[in-house]
């Protein structure tokens, strides 16, 4: 008896279609489709999956919207979601910068062998952090 081979999703070339954005309120986020209304992801990018999510969760509120009104609401939700995503990346970048700065200061203190209260060490640390 022949073995059944599993289908691989990667081989089926499933890609996010631009028209699904306004139709079902989804955007492509990394490798998944992300609903801009409820921030849920749909792992498999098939139109059926996106349509089913939209009809089961958002049909009553967004079905009657058409044309420019639908587009305006979609872009407003999309901008809100992307601003939330960038907020988290900004704080991550700030934390990374602070960690690097503390390592640089610790290196200068260890190299000099003097306490941080020494004025020359403080001046050297400030000059190092400005660059």
From TrEMBL:
Domain (SPIN-DOC-like zinc-finger): residue spans on this chain: 18-73
Pfam annotation, one family: zf-C2H2_12
Source organism: Sinanodonta woodiana
Protein name: SPIN-DOC-like zinc-finger domain-containing protein
Listed InterPro entries: SPIN-DOC_Znf-C2H2
């Amino acid at each position: 008896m022949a073995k059944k081979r599993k289908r691989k999703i990667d081989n089926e070339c499933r890609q996010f279609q631009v028209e699904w954005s306004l139709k079902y309120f989804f955007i492509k986020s990394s490798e998944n489709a992300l609903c801009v209304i409820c921030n849920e992801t749909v792992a498999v990018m098939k139109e059926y999956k996106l349509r089913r999510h939209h009809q089961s969760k958002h049909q009553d509120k967004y079905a009657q919207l058409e044309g420019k009104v639908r587009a305006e609401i979609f872009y407003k939700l999309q901008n809100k979601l992307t601003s939330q995503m960038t907020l988290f990346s900004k704080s991550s970048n700030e934390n990374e910068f602070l960690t690097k700065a503390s390592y640089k200061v610790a290196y200068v203190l260890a190299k000099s062998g003097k306490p941080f209260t020494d004025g020359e060490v403080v001046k050297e640390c400030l000059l190092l952090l400005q660059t």
